[in-house]
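Checklist before submission:
- one chain only
- standard amino acids only
- sequence pasted in full

Submission:
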Amino acid sequence: MKPFYKILRLCFSGADNIYFKEPNTNKSIEKKDLMEKEFIVEDSIHNVSWKLVDGETKTILGHVCKKATGKSERGLELAAWYAEDIVLSSGPASFSGLPGLILGLDINNAEITYTAQEIKTEVKKADIKAPTKGKKVTPEEFVKIRKELMGDGNGPVRIVTN
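Returned file contents:
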């Protein structure tokens, strides 16, 4: 029998984005919704040099989570809350690399936050599939499209529709 975390489904609140990870190939596939359009973005799973923080804990979905901090590849400040009792080095979006499952993540001082809303341990493996619905783009292409639709973040939001 395979450990439950091999077929774990973790739900986070927020947009209807879907994150699918293939740890054996270090690949992530993400469905991102932007202005009522769907995109499929393939990337690598991001490595973060985490610093474990002693003494700070938070309970998320009944799991006592420890805190870790780090910086993303783009230099954004990260604070992660991971559950050591779920022995899976994974988490939301493309973040992983801690000695337990990341159930909470704060990016750039709450600019983006993730908190697990549900953990299902009895999931059919066939139900866990990489997303396929949407236009396939690279991470760089997605950033360019987002900037075209929403501006560069240095001024008022610009909305462009067809």
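Reviewer check: Confidence is low (pLDDT under 50) at residues 1-9, 155-162.
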